[in-house]
Write a structure and sequence with these properties.
This protein is an alpha/beta fold and about 200 residues long. The chain has four helices and eleven strands.
Length: about 200
């Protein structure tokens, strides 16, 4: 019997949190290097990143490296209204960051950057399959935020994860926004069809 999404999330989080400090450090460094290669190959001038939370790969060194090279960076900001909306706001070296209700750092008092302005959109996740289906935290922030670009090739939607987070095919809901590919400690992997043949 296939586990429910909730059970699968719990299993994958347990696996992720089981990494040793040394393993995590090595994997994060490899992921940062792979992201750098991808960003250079795409000539990315604007990237939406994320602030790591609850065991997610730490991509902040990569983001700061891109920032120093002149790339525009942004981080997600969760809105406090009933719609559970999320936008991306500019993140610069001098930007003040503060924790939101989940404890995730967000930029304070910086301008909103529209999703189509990015060349790459880096998305954290709990699990992914080889067809580009993403298992998120379950609140649907990314799916709601990205619904208008779900069928577009740009920005490039890049899942960021450890290889141990790959799972058996995930049944996609109609509102799920698929990934174009995944970056893990082994490299960049582009996806094709969302469903198994």
């Amino acid at each position: 019997m296939n586990p429910t999404r909730s059970n699968l999330r719990q299993q994958l989080r347990t696996l992720r949190n089981g990494l040793t400090v040394a393993q995590r450090s090595a994997h994060d460094a490899a992921i940062g290097g792979n992201l750098l290669e991808l960003a250079k190959s795409r000539r990315a001038g604007a990237i939406a990143g994320y602030w790591p939370f609850n065991g997610e790969p730490d991509i902040t060194p990569f983001c700061r490296q891109m920032m120093a090279a002149g790339c525009r960076l942004a981080l997600p900001v969760i809105k406090g209204d009933d719609a559970c909306r999320m936008d991306f706001h500019a993140w610069r070296e001098d930007t003040v960051l503060a924790a939101n209700r989940y404890g995730i750092l967000e930029p304070q008092n910086t301008e909103l950057l529209p999703v189509p302005a990015f060349d790459m959109l880096l998305m954290p996740l709990v699990g992914y399959d080889r067809f580009g289906n993403r298992l998120g935290m379950g609140a649907g922030y990314y799916d709601r935020c990205l619904v208008s670009i779900r069928d577009l090739e740009s920005p490039l939607r890049v899942g960021v994860a450890y290889s141990l987070q790959e799972t058996a095919p995930v049944e996609a809901a109609e509102w799920d926004v698929p990934l174009h590919g995944i970056v893990n400690e082994h490299g960049w992997f582009a996806f094709g069809s969302r469903q198994p043949e």
